[in-house]
Amino acid sequence: MKQIFIDAFVLQPIPATREYAEQIYNIFTNDADSFKYWFDGGCYNSIDEVLKNYQKQTQNTDSVWKTDMYGIFKDNELLGEIGLSGIDTKNQTGEIGYWLKKSARGKGIITKLIPEIEKIAFAELKLRKINIWCDEDNIASRKHAEKQGYVLEGIQRERKLWPDGSIHSTLMFGKLKSEWKGTL
Q1: Alpha-helix runs per DSSP H in the chain
Q2: How crowded is the C-beta side of 121, counted as CA atoms within 13 Å?
């Protein structure tokens, strides 16, 4: 299992076990009001649903669309997840995605970890472009993208219908490998 150490954090794949499925389910249930707007279909409905989702991720053998996601751990506590999804090996693109439990937000964790995910994307996976998508009202995600030098490339107007019936636009930020400041 690949582990990445950054300051006090450890990034490693989340095992598709019932124990971790229960932790993730509890995190989402305890903060259902915010998570329901970040994930298609809203929150998880059961521990089994979480487990099936993570089993599906670990068994993805699609040669074109892949994921490379990591649990964010501090002192063996699962704080959230960050990584790449929608990795398109043919077009050499991917999307950075992340979530944090409520108690871990607002501490600069995601801003600290994005450069490591960029390194994986550009240096290891040889991608030429990565995107960050966020809801127009998700100020924190927008700030993460802007702080890391991502360019606002577009707005998909009225892209998402939220569970409460409101309609929201999505911002798309992008970074090219040529804009990346990391080392190869």
Answers
A1: 18-30, 32-35, 47-58, 109-119, 139-147
A2: 36
pLDDT, tens only, 106-135: 999 999 999 999 999 999 999 999 999 999
DSSP summary character for residue 37: T
Q: How far apart are CA 50 and CA 53, in angstroms?
A: 5
Higher pLDDT among residues 60 and 55, named by residue: 55
pTM attached to this predicted model: 0.87
Which residue from 32, 58, 55, 60 is spatially nearest to 44, judged by alpha carbons? 32
CA geometry: angle 136, 142, 145, nearest 5 deg: 140
